[in-house]
């Protein structure tokens, strides 16, 4: 993917899989699905509970990665990794609202926000500056493969 294609793909609505290193003896990196927000050229933002394992590992590692994919053929994905640049503690209400409205229709988002309002005091927003990108768009491969099937 071109730089523009990868940034717009990441900015589109996908559930991301966040990866963060762990110092826990014998454990693989933590991988968890997350809602996130990204604007091309900007920082990626995720939110989580202040005392969760995820938050503890993010503070310790100081960086994380996220991978998003299109599960429909032709398959595509973007993976980005970078440093944590800031933590908003607690998560700003506008940030929480923006992420909820990104993933849910307006009425459902408002109901979700009302039902989980106590999280405003428990959640933090973690910002990451994308630094290393990996991408794939299998459209060309799929077209070539489709041309060889008889």
Automatic annotation (TrEMBL):
Record SUPFAM superfamilies: FMN-binding split barrel
Keyword set includes Oxidoreductase: yes
UniProt-recorded Gene Ontology molecular function terms: coenzyme F420 binding; oxidoreductase activity, acting on the CH-CH group of donors
Keywords: Oxidoreductase
Record GO cellular component, one term: cytosol
Protein name from the UniProt record: Pyridoxamine 5'-phosphate oxidase
Organism: Kibdelosporangium phytohabitans
Organism classification: Bacteria, Bacillati, Actinomycetota, Actinomycetes, Pseudonocardiales
